[in-house]
Amino acid sequence: MNEQLRFPAEWETQSAILIAWPHADTDWADRLADVEETYIALVAAITRFQPVLIIVADDDLEAYADARLRSNRIDMERVRFVTAQYDDTWLRDSGPITLRRADGGFRLLDFRFTGWGGKFEASLDDQLVGVLHGQGLFANAELQSIPFALEGGGIETDGEGTLLTTWQCLHERHPDRDRASLSADMATWLAQDRVLWLDHGYLEGDDTDAHIDTLARFASPDSIVYQACDDSTDSHHAELQAMGNELAALRTTAGQPYRLFPLPWARPVIDEGRRLAASYANYLILNGAVLMPAYGDEADNAARDVLAQAYPDREIVQVPCRSLIWQNGSLHCITMQLPAGVLAA
Known about the structure:
Layout: E1 5-6, E2 14-20, H1 32-47, E3 52-56, H2 59-71, E4 79-83, H3 91-94, E5 97-101, E6 106-112, H4 115-118, H5 123-134, E7 141-149, E8 155-157, E9 162-166, H6 167-173, H7 179-189, E10 194-198, E11 216-220, E12 223-227, H8 237-249, E13 259-263, E14 269-271, E15 274-276, E16 284-286, E17 289-294, H9 300-310, E18 315-320, E19 336-339
Parallel strand pairs: 2-3, 3-4, 6-7, 9-10, 12-13, 17-18
Antiparallel strand pairs: 1-5, 2-19, 5-6, 8-9, 11-12, 14-15, 16-17
C-alpha cells in the first residue's frame, strides 16, 4: 500500500453524503414525481445522522428542492446545496473517490465516466468532479484526473488495502487489458495492496456490467455481505450460487475465510415486461446507521435482519427504492460518501 495515501472504507466517519437532485432533463423525467419521493425519504434518513450535500442544476431547482424538503420537515440545518450541471443522478459512479493523505489532506480521484461503457450520454457527469473541486467545495484536497474508465460502484475496499471487484465490469470497460495489469494499476491509483476478483454474479436489468456494489460488500475487514438467491427456478440462481462459492474461497490478509452474510432474494419485479435489478446489497453506510433499499417485498424485513447481524453497532433504516430500480440502480448507486474533514466550511 502507498504509505502516503489510504482509501478509507465506507464505514469510517463521514462528513456528508453527496447526491444530485433529479429533474426533468435527467432520465427520471417520465417518473419524476415517484423518484422525488424516494429522494425526500433518503434525505430525511441521512439527516437523522449527518449532513447531506445536494447538487442542483440551477437556482430554480434549488428553490424547488428546498421547498419540497421543508414541507416534509427535513432538518435543513444538515442540508447544503451546490450548483453544477449533470446528465443524471448516479453519483456513486460520477462522484469523487476520496483518498486520505498522510499529512491530513485528501486526494480526489477523477476517473473517466463513460456512461457505463458508452451506453448513455455522460459528458456532463464526466466533468462533475473537476467542477465541484473548482468551486472550492473540498478542503485541503488535490485533484488527480486519471484517463481510465472506472466507476465507484465497481469497487469495494476494506480500508486496509484490499479491493474487491468483478472481472465482467472491468473487462467490459477495458477489453484489451489483462487481469494482472488492471490489478497493478488499480492498486497503484487506489493505494491498495491486493485486488480480489469475482468471476460470477450478475443481475438482470443491470446496466453496469456487474458492479460489485449490487453483489457483494465489505462489512468489515473480515466480513462480506452478499446478494444470494435461494430460488432454484430463478434465472439468477446458478450465477449467484457460484458467486457465493467464490466468496467462500476468498481469504483475508490473515489467511482466514471471510465471515459471510447472505442477503435474501426479493421476488421478481417486472415493469412493462422488463425485469428490474432489485438487490439488497446496494445499501449505504452512514455514521451510526445503514440505509437499506426496500422494495415492498416480504424479503425486506429479512434483509434488514441480515444487515443488523453484519452491522450490529448501527441502526438499520429502510428507504423505499422501488422507483430507483426502474432506472436499473438503487440506493448506493445514487449516493457518494465524503470522508470526515474533506468538505470546506
